Amino acid sequence: MATLTFTATGSQPERQLSQEEQIEQIIRNTESVSIGTKSSAVAGPDPEGTKNLPETTRKRFEKYGVDISKGYPTRPDKNSIPVYVDEAFAIRNEDYNFVDRGKFADPEKKALFGAAKEVKHLTKHIGTEIVGLQLQDLNDKQKDELALLIAERIVVFFRDQDLSPQKQLELGHYWGQVEVHAQTSQVPGLPGITVIWGDYMKKHGLPIRYKNAKIGTNQWHTDLVHEHQPAGITHLHNDAIPDVGGDTQWSSGYAAYDKLSPALQKFLDGKKAVYVSAHSYLDRNDPFSGPKKIERIHPLVRTHPVTGWKSLFINKPMTKRIVGLEPAESDLILDYLCKVFESNLDIQVRFNWKPSKPGLGTSALWDNRVSQHSSVWDHEGKEPRHGTRVTSLAEIPFFDPNSSSQREALGLSLD
Ligand SMILES: [Fe+2]
């Protein structure tokens, strides 16, 4: 580094920059260098992206006055993206007073169910579809009941939705602090709405192909587990959907816990694990050691604050190790626990997003605290798939030793 001679300029007298300032300057000033990601997407609004925008998405944005004239999506400006992992760790690293709206709900959910045309459970243990209601019309009572329903059923679906991005964001604020991601693409003018657009990711570095389709969001995972207060209700509204395929699957953390033997449950209760971010940054003290993830410690079995049920809180790409175990022991146990989520079809739901009415979108709202999900890339990008996602952050994860499993609480067989 001694050969680098960047200096701070401007009205201040010139001074030699420190090594870390020099590296930061190189990263911020070099178009082709991205921070901890292989993506080559441009910073700021992307005019190229606008050209490829699915027609149904364009119409939704036009209808609701989202300005995409400068480009789409908007990638955070390089000057605002943290370079070093300690800066990224500091984002939202203080307690935020979260009150779960599900606590205020009528357990029978009369306001929500009474207004719906139909309430369909898609499987025994996970997934419910509400028919005949527009999310944009829900009153506060119904929103509280929906929060409880999501906590109980893990994922709730609404088809045929006429939903503005602004309303989607407003709903997210109702259920908690909306996460604004430091690195991901956003809807212009609406920070907090993350763009879920596989075709765009593929164009900008995601090496997805038929023989390697289980990468990115297509592998089983839980969103934003590295946060101080990780994701609670997450709302993905898909406004461009393939005619066939492009499904998403969810798996229940409550049920995964209930699949374990009492002896293994007892062993895991109270254990903690190290959780990592999906995106990477640099180590300030060792910047050439490669990309580094944000790391955070949370309980491996957590208690849901509203249902009171225990849930396994792990996922393969973002749970690094179980605290207190040898690495080989941790790897073995985590691998087994992930298999429980991934291989038990009776604790999963697979959902096809295709709405029945043209021009309308489909919403899925799930509880990230108690689930994993993965999408299915069988359409191979030949038909557009585009969505907007709003994530409401929840409580600091906790384990209550007096809490019960879901099956215990519901009086179901534990065998
Ligand atoms: Fe996800």
From TrEMBL:
Keyword Iron in the entry? The reply is yes
Q: Segment Disordered: which positions?
A: 29-54
Q: Any keyword Metal-binding?
A: yes
Q: Which GO terms describe its molecular function?
A: 2-oxoglutarate-dependent dioxygenase activity; metal ion binding
Task: Give any Gene Ontology cellular component.
Answer: cytoplasm
Q: Which residues form the TauD/TfdA-like domain?
A: 118-391
Keyword annotations for this protein, in alphabetical order, are: Dioxygenase, Iron, Metal-binding, Oxidoreductase
Segments of skewed composition (Polar residues): 29-40
What cofactor does this chain's UniProt record say it requires? Fe(2+)
**Which Pfam family would be a valid example here?**
TauD
What family does this chain come from, according to its entry? Belongs to the TfdA dioxygenase family.
Question: What is the name attached to this protein's record?
Answer: TauD/TfdA-like domain-containing protein
Write down the species. Answer: Pachysolen tannophilus NRRL Y-2460
